[in-house]
Structure to design on (516 residues):
């Protein structure tokens, strides 16, 4: 007979909270590790995501952690990603309420002030990403001196992300007699060093496969050019249902989500450039079924548990074998079936064949199947409205042009001007706003603005006088006569006319200068 939580030593209040949440019997990893944790032993565990390991370490943490003073938590959980930290805190909330304990998840991407205020009031269980916790410690708003229980979750992921040096510094700040619990998919390399240096005689528990069972999934490798991937991905999602689409870059994830949306597929993007609120909404929409697809970079490949993922699409081929394994492990969990589809560029066929051989995947690279009848109909967009629609009359306007600047048009009143026929140039009445926007042109092909003046030179010639002549005449009439003290009268008249002509020339040049 399988043991109950009460048989494992879990307090009655927490057992009642688990029962209210629909959790009545422990999973294998919980049954194996909870008794040792209540006994105060250090534990090393290997369990896949979704196996129940959060409750396996969370129940003893909640039950055994003492009340904390302000800024001095007594229990600590280190997680590699924001999503995992938030998920751990949320999953432990019912038990925390039953045990009258307070928890807080701190991570980057959100404001510091709300986290600082809660830490000052006092937090018993702190769930944190390593980087944000170091920031808070440097600001002296939290100290780890009273931490007696520490959990390092996804330690192998911490090593991949380069967090282990930070983890070591944080562990050094906790109590020396602390109880240390470590979970990891791999227990060698850098993770093995942490186990040897920071744990005392740990008990080892391994549950499930060390890696996702690739044979539990159906693998497809489809050779397809990049421009045809989005329609094929849309038809695949419509066929299989809940799907995670993995892209290589953050920009590629956003672009793929937008393009899938245009084809009628509700898709949410999640990657490092999204805010924490956007990432949480994307996961919530995908988990609830509001979004049919989650388009992600490797940030969601590990540490995030979403039930009933039917299909995984490698939109961009992976660079490493381990990435293919961990991405594919999002489907075919707990005995369920799943499909893993890889889109292969023609130039990547050789690399994909080598990877298939290393992973012992016998499936061939083929052309994608026919998707007729599967692809969802794209939403009908409204017909594009013609530009400047307000300028068209009810009967329509036609424009024809033969030769430079010649046009025919029909006005709303039905008046017509024949091509090549020019009447006298009359001053047009004040134009409406629509006519001014239209930019009517004269017969010469140059735009003409209502009320514009003709060039100054032509206007002067029309009246039979040039600007120069007119200026000379005006200056001559108003110029004062000057006489020399010596010389004849004829000389004085000549000098006066000469000065008048020079003045007229200067006046003409000054008036013509602005029009150049």
């Amino acid at each position: 007979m399988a043991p109950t939580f009460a048989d494992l030593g879990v307090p009655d209040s927490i057992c009642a909270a688990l029962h209210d949440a629909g959790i009545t019997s422990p999973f294998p990893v919980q049954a194996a590790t909870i008794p040792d944790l209540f006994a105060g032993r250090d534990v090393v565990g290997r369990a896949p995501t979704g196996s129940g390991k959060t409750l396996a370490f969370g129940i003893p943490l909640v039950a055994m952690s003492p009340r904390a003073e302000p800024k001095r938590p007594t229990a600590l959980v280190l997680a590699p990603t924001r999503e995992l930290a938030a998920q751990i805190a949320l999953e432990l909330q019912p038990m925390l309420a039953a045990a009258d304990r307070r928890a807080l998840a701190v991570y980057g991407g959100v404001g510091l002030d709300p986290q600082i205020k809660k830490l000052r009031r006092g937090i018993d269980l702190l769930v944190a990403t390593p980087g944000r916790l170091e920031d808070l410690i440097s600001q002296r708003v939290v100290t780890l001196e009273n931490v007696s229980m520490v959990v390092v979750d996804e330690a192998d992921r911490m090593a991949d992300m380069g967090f282990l040096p930070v983890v070591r510094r944080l562990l050094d700040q906790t109590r020396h007699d602390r109880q240390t619990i470590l979970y990891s998919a791999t227990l060698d390399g850098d993770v093995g060093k942490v186990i040897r240096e920071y744990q005392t005689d740990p008990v080892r528990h391994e549950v499930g496969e060390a890696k996702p069972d690739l044979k539990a999934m159906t693998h497809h490798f489809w050779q397809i050019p990049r421009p045809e991937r989005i329609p094929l991905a849309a038809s695949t999602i419509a066929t299989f249902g809940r799907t995670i689409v993995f892209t290589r870059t953050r920009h590629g994830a956003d672009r793929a989500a937008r393009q899938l949306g245009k084809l009628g597929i509700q898709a949410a993007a999640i990657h490092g450039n999204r805010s924490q609120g956007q990432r949480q909404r994307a996961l919530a929409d995908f988990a609830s079924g509001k979004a049919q697809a989650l388009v992600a970079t490797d940030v969601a490949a590990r540490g995030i548990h979403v039930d009933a993922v039917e299909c995984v699409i490698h939109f961009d081929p992976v660079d490493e074998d381990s990435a293919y394994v961990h991405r594919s492990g999002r489907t075919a969990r707990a005995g369920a079936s799943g499909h893993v589809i890889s889109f292969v560029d023609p130039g990547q066929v050789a690399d994909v064949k080598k990877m298939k051989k290393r992973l012992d995947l016998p499936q061939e690279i083929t052309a994608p199947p026919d998707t007729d009848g599967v692809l969802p109909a794209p939403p009908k967009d409204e017909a594009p409205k013609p530009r400047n629609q307000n300028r068209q009359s009810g009967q329509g306007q036609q424009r024809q042009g033969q030769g430079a600047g010649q046009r025919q048009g029909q006005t709303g009143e039905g008046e017509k001007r024949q091509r090549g026929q020019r009447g006298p140039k009359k001053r047009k009445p004040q134009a409406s706003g629509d006519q001014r926007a239209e930019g009517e042109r004269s017969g010469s092909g140059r735009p003409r603005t209502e009320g514009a003046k003709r060039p100054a030179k032509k206007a002067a010639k029309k009246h039979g006088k040039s600007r120069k002549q007119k200026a000379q005449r005006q200056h001559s009439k108003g110029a004062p006569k000057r006489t020399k003290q010596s010389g004849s009268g004829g000389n004085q008249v000549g000098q006066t006319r000469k000065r008048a002509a020079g003045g007229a020339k200067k006046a003409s040049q000054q008036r013509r200068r602005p029009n150049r």
Observations:
- The two ends are 104 Å apart (CA to CA).
- Residues 489-512 form the longest helix (24 residues).
- Residues 373-465, 479-490 have pLDDT under 50 and may be disordered.
